[in-house]
Structures
1.
Amino acid sequence: MSEKELVIGQSVRRLDAVGKVTGETAYPGDIDMEDQLWMKIRFADRVHARITAIDTSQAEAHPGVVAVFTAKDVPVNEYGLGIPDQPVLCGPGSAKEGADIVRCISDQVALVVADSEAAAAEAVRLIDITYEDLPVITDPEEALREGAPQLHPHAQGNILTHYRIRHGDMAAGWAQAEVVVEGVYRTGAQEHAYLQPEAGLGYIDEEGRVTVVVAGQWVHKDQQQVAHALGLPEEQVRIIYPAIGGAFGGREDMSVQIVLGLAAWKLRRPVKIIWSREESIIGHHKRHPMTIRAKWGATKEGRLVAAEAEIIADAGAYAYTSPKVLGNAHLMVCGPYVIPNAHVDSYAVYTNNVPSGAFRGFGGPQGAFAAEGQMNRLAEALGMDPVALRAMNVLKDGSITVVGSPLPPGVTLDRVLADGAVQSGYWEHAGGQWQRRPVAQPADPAKRRGVGMAIGLKNVGFSFGAPEGNWATVELHGSTEIERVVVREVGADVGQGAHTVFVQMAAAAVGVPVEKVELLGHDTTYAGNSGSASASRMTFMAGNAIKGAAELALEKWRAEERPAIATYQYRAPKTTPYDPETGRSEPNVSYGYMAQFVEVEVDVETGHVRVVRVVSAHDVGKAINPHLIEGQVEGAVVQALGYAVMENLVTKDGRILNPTLSTYLIPTIWDIPEETKSVILEYADPRGPWGARGMAEMPFIPLAPAIVAAVHDATGVWFDRIPLTPERVVARLREKGLGVI
């Protein structure tokens, strides 16, 4: 058996397992330096206002305070992943036009640096800020109306982004439609609730570089944004990630990186910060709330012929990743189906709410909630089994999508659907027909059980024309045989186990045991740009880069070059943006495919929805590390369960009313399903390393619509808004005459 066969497909123990279990692993908040100072941030006291004056004299006079920084101290007072539309610090005195306006409570106004955390916390409250209130708008549909307050000069009508799909002939499509279903679907904001709140340490390293130790998702993008704001060359800024306590997209945008770099650069001393949970919930972005209006038509045999949709996404006060998130929702709102005629308009809209941004699934869960809701309602209207309806319409190799192009080769939705349905135990395929087995009902008459299902697809890698690739370096050390392999690959491990997989892939590519591989990562000085730990891309992109570097290094080794060192940049196939008029696009490099089957129990008296069992089927291409895949499935299911049934971020007039984990409820061990069954399918992706596809986000995508379908199966009542909180559920059930009146 070859070393490749020994390593790939094996559940190698995580590199960080022992350190994390014993508590020895250091996270940013655990790291201290001699002579360090402490920082606290003054967030905005208003939702929308102009700052006319800032008096820092009392704070500066407070015992222990070393410095206070405001907008005037930031060399280039702007940042943003795609659009630099947010000031680093809001207030007068900077050259950035509009930087004196706060547009949401997440805006940062001033920094206090002191010799203790307590002194900084006391002094930051002493800053006197004079505001001139401006009109507040928090409803994106109101923000679109003529005469609404305009939040950014570059956004006409508060529209940040508008995408279109104009595919086929809608008049002909509706003429063919014999059954039509319509729905309005609403999804809420979601807090990432990662275990480690934002924290970090800024200092000047031995080579004079501004160095920021922080948790993030893309060291080189953090480096670019810190350097830009400080007006420094990128090589004068260094970013280091120690252990990262979760991310889920919540660390893609800046939190403490720039302000730590600013303070360290100005003071030439180490500066540390740790956010409280409340500061974290207020200070970073949320999943996009969306309203989706959908109308779908099918023939009486079940063939889809037409779909119309409108998406209105609340972008919040700044752009963040809204254009890209909306792009995914725009693509997925028509589901993974062949629909010959489609008409879609999608809008990301500025409001004075906390910004919206990346969160696991990246627009896919919202699009799937509507698309799969439509399919489940169509199945009921047609009197068809929901698996059979999907099997008839699902995309296959060569099928043309609603954006006018086929998916990349290796489409396996039909097989994932069929394998998942059978392995769920709820469906059987006999005599050419799909049939669902009945589910046993509880003895308690107030409790009812039901089963539902949904499917989906999710992109692997950056989309819509964004350049995609990854750098890696492989070093082979030894004399007559390879004794040590050093891999330089800085793709972020945000808790998903990416670094373990990097080592496995390097060992397989070189042909050595994993024990001989050493990884240097999480530092901008170690290797070239690896891209973000997002878009389910890291295994796919880093794997191809590591494989390419290993092959080049082996060529040098065979030529007796010792050590043999090679660097390789993997460049993924190009994608294209949406055509602004038609939506025509080749949007993604690769996809992952999934199907989920859910059993729920509904208490019709209290409205409580208990998710009993989830069967989650996925084509992963090749399971590099099966246990890590199972962990991703189980984690995503729990996170998606929270999104679907309990995580209810309450806002009023742009303020978050429940910014603590005692009032913003996330699933605990008492809420998770009795069983989460992972069905791992391996149909090789032609472009993936060893055939692997990304899959970290995929188990999140279909769960909410599957739960809603199961609740309908149990109660006969459809729900079109999540989360399914007990209050919301019981009110709807009572409207339909169920439960206690």
Note: The longest strand covers residues 447-460.
2.
Amino acid sequence: MKKKEAPYINREISWLSFNERVLQEAADPTTPIIERLKFLGIFSNNRDEFYRVRVATVKRLVKLGKKALAIYDEDPKELLTRLQRKVIEQQIKFETIYQEILKELAINNVFIINEKQLTADQQTFVKNYFHDEIISTLFPVMIDETKPFPFLKDKASYLYLKMESIVNNQKNKYAIIEIPSKIISRFVVLPKQGNKHFIMLLDDVIRFNTDQIFDVFGFRTVESYNIKLTRDAELDMDNDVSKSMIEKISKSVKARKQGLPVRFVYDAAMPNDMLRYIMRKLGMAKKDNAIPGGRYHNFKDFIGFPKLGEKNLSYNNPRLLEHKYLINNPLSTLRAIKSRDILLHYPYHTYNHIITLLREASIDPVVESIKITLYRVADSSKIANALINAVKNGKQVTVLVELQARFDEENNIYWANKLQEEGANVIYGVPGLKVHSKLFLITTREAGKIIKYAHIGTGNFNEQTAKIYTDFSLLTCNKLITEDLTKVFDFYENNFKVYNFKALVVAPFYMRKTFLDLIQKEIQSAKSKKPAAITLKMNSLVDKEMIEKLYEASKAGVQITLIIRGACSLVTDFAGWSDNIKAYSIVDKYLEHTRVFIFYNGGDEKIFISSADWMSRNLDSRSEVAVPIFDEEIRSQIKEIIRIQLSGNTKVRILDKKQENTYKKAKPGEKKVRVQDEVYTYLKTDKEKYLNLNKTKKIIYN
């Protein structure tokens, strides 16, 4: 008898369900109105990356024909149709939400107006602004049938115009103008009128002034529509062994900019003749992911929508917390870590603690070396600058820069070159592996003894994303951990040697097996009628083997709780498979990015934090690290944060088999719990209790 196949939600379909949760935040009337606009921007940016990476991959599979079925679960052609149907459905919702937000903004005296709604004074301002600030950044292209069609860049938005001759004997023409939103803000703030704020999109400022560009050539604009092309963003690596990794990545990044089109978005109001003309020029058919959209594209720019009007129109987040063991710290950060393990939780705690630690290490005479992995760094990275300062102060600095961090390759190449120029030992990743771990190791010589300090985290060394991503950083000088971390860095420098680890769980060598074994232990406990439970928090759960093991655990009676922000291919509420599995997703003002794995383990709970999701790429083809939490206070802290997250009844969705994203709501008489606010309150209260206790002790002592 053939074994029944385990239920599994396609990763791409599940990912679209996640982006629907982002769209829900834009639709939620309890979200401040300007933040709702920003969520539309996040949704749009997510969808762009989805097309550039995931849809591009499916399109490549289509070319394989029947062979694709051997490496993929379903017919990629059929999947593309399903994806396009869902994207169009979401786009209709998107447009409806945007129109609702415009009305809400107007009620609050913030008006987004177009070129047809300008008063005489506003027209004068817009003409002057165009002449002074914009016209020099524009490079219009008149489309000529005798010349090749202009190349449309990935991620750029364009105005596509129909031009009418105002001079005899000239045919009507088409033109393309790239909207220079990388150079000039997409949002032009017009002069305030009383208490009314007016904003105009850069697109419409250009539309209003196109005749200033073309009338000297004998044309005026008849029609103007926004268009956008998304290209395949997969890197095709050169196998030339004579080239360095940095040369190969640089070449691939340049090639990516000319990748094949995977989506064409156009204004749905565009006349058919204009649409047919440009699609013919692009060599695309309607079936090739041509998506009718609204008047504007590249909505990702709305993430940077200016704060205008009353304060309640935006989130007014509370002040960042200093960690209770680092506030008013008379010792250096290293000495504080020496006395106890410390867990930082962003964005509630200030990221300055990490920058301060590295800055102190860069000048502290006892520090001999610093080793660190960099995956995505900020454009003006204080982390990288602290490392450069360490080199100048005579420290041995080793930096592993992952050149294949998707969409951050150019920035990482810049910092790799800069660090190398300054004298750091720079390692360009590991052949065949993407290094995704978030580690640093500081080695000191104190009173003749070597002492090591470790950082193992769930998020990147990036002071910008630390303001909006929730992440953990464990700081410790626990010898079991620091000795293992020394081995990890030795592996990065000498790839031929694979080590055994006493504490750390390291991918791709042992992580899959370790977690499978821990699940198996829970299964055995459940079968022996003993308590058995697993709690997992991560961004994505799509690995088939791990999912099947969780189904096996559920069937045995293990109580499993999942908190998954993004794609979740495990099917909950599926009789006989997932009866003992509950799954939730939190989407709110911060992006949930922590990974936490808790196993009951016969009462001796094992708790890990990690950089890894449960995806085959993380477990099998990346270097990832999970660290066990030994410190009792930190163990209690993590468990309390997870308890708060599971008690949430605002901004929490239930992940069900229909992917309906139903909100988990407060029961009658139950207190409303907004997870991210509650976590901040918990950490703030914990800090205040500690400080008050210390204050009391000092008074008694004195």
Note: The chain is about 40% helix and 20% strand.
